[in-house]
Amino acid sequence: MNPAEFTSTYYIDRRGSHSRKWDGQHLKFNRTDLLPLWVADMDFMPPRCIQDAICTYVKAHPLGYTMTNPNYLEAVIDWYKRRHNCILSKDWLTSAPNVITGIMWCIAAFTKTNDAIAVLTPVYGAFDASASDAKRPIIAVPMNRNEDNRYSIDYSTFEAAIVKHDVKVFIHCNPHNPVGHVWTEDEMDQLFSICKRHGVLIISDEIHQDLVAGPLPFTSALTVSNGAYANNIITMSSLSKSFNMASLHHAEVIIPNEDLRRQYNTCKSLVYHTDSDVIAEIAITAAYTHPEAEMWLTDLLAVVKENYEYMCSQLLHALPELRISPMDGTYLAWIDFGAYVKAEDMHNIFENQCGIAPSFGEWFGGKSYATFVRLNLATSLENIKIATNSMIQHIHP
Ligand SMILES: Cc1ncc(COP(=O)(O)O)c(C=O)c1O
């Protein structure tokens, strides 16, 4: 399907469906009539094969207690092998109700109060919240923004921060929300070797792993240097971003090391007594085994790419000094309006003039990002045109 056909088949007006993004604007904004480009979910129905699999199951079975379905485990293992050249062992798979809960349980299992946790900023704000809610200081190591607006790491700054703060856990994000960078194997090798040298546990959030349309392929942390760091890594993922099913409560937590896995599962059993969510397992199995789901994903990425290219070309034509980062992964555009808008005017301009609900840059690491916005492009081109035109109309060179 081309992008126009995909949109006419799968786009859905979500207003009135209790969608956090559309109907929950009062949670973060002063108005409720904005075009929402904030929460990271999509305005598209998931592939029909997933819809059908869920409907078929609920029509044929009660939703009684279930055990983990081996077909689901096979589907996950097969997906990682086929899509990411990553060989998982069945034993490594455990779970959480979602990725952030999995990260919170790792923090509880592997750190004590006041143990430091490192992140590379700007980064998804829930990492910070998970650490600070558990009274663990977050050590923000700012990435460098290069001339081409790509982000990179100063490894000696990273290592110095790890040593200075005696960091115990590093939360890595690949592809990186919000800057859209897909980390290369070499970059991860350098980062992880620093972690290894200083006994730092790596949590790799790979939730955006399938949303890669740029030139760099996604590499799971588990496969870096032929698995050299796998004993020291916990990866998290789910189908929630790739197939727009974030309300399903299930994430894969992959822990190759047996001791770490035992510690995680012990911590999990203190607060959670369910092994499997049958609807999530049905959805995941359908998503990871039906060719139709993979085609849907390919078509979706083409829509997101078209939206990104449209927005970039129009915005840069009108506002050539904008700094837009390459979106190699995710469906989130990271744009710095600092050449045109003062930090203190950003909220007023976006909310009251442009009529857009963006994710504001400061949500990803504080005031240094106050002139940035993150815009969610997983919507119709029509919505992207409205947002783009409105920015051009209200932001002046
Ligand atoms: C990098 C990253 N991790 C985790 C999440 C949230 O995942 P979950 O709903 O599974 O907790 C998001 C959502 O935007 C995200 O971008």
From TrEMBL:
Instruction: Tell me the protein's name.
Output: cysteine-S-conjugate beta-lyase
The highest taxon in the source lineage is: Bacteria
Which Enzyme Commission numbers does its entry carry?
A: 4.4.1.13
According to its UniProt entry, this protein's organism is: Veillonella rogosae JCM 15642
Alphabetized InterPro entries for the sequence: Aminotransferase_I/II_large, Class-II_PLP-Dep_Aminotrans, PyrdxlP-dep_Trfase, PyrdxlP-dep_Trfase_major, PyrdxlP-dep_Trfase_small
| The protein's required cofactors | pyridoxal 5'-phosphate
User: Which Pfam families does this chain map to?
Assistant: Aminotran_1_2
Domain Aminotransferase class I/classII large, chain residue ranges per copy: 66-387
Query: Which molecular function term from Gene Ontology is one that the record holds?
Result: transaminase activity
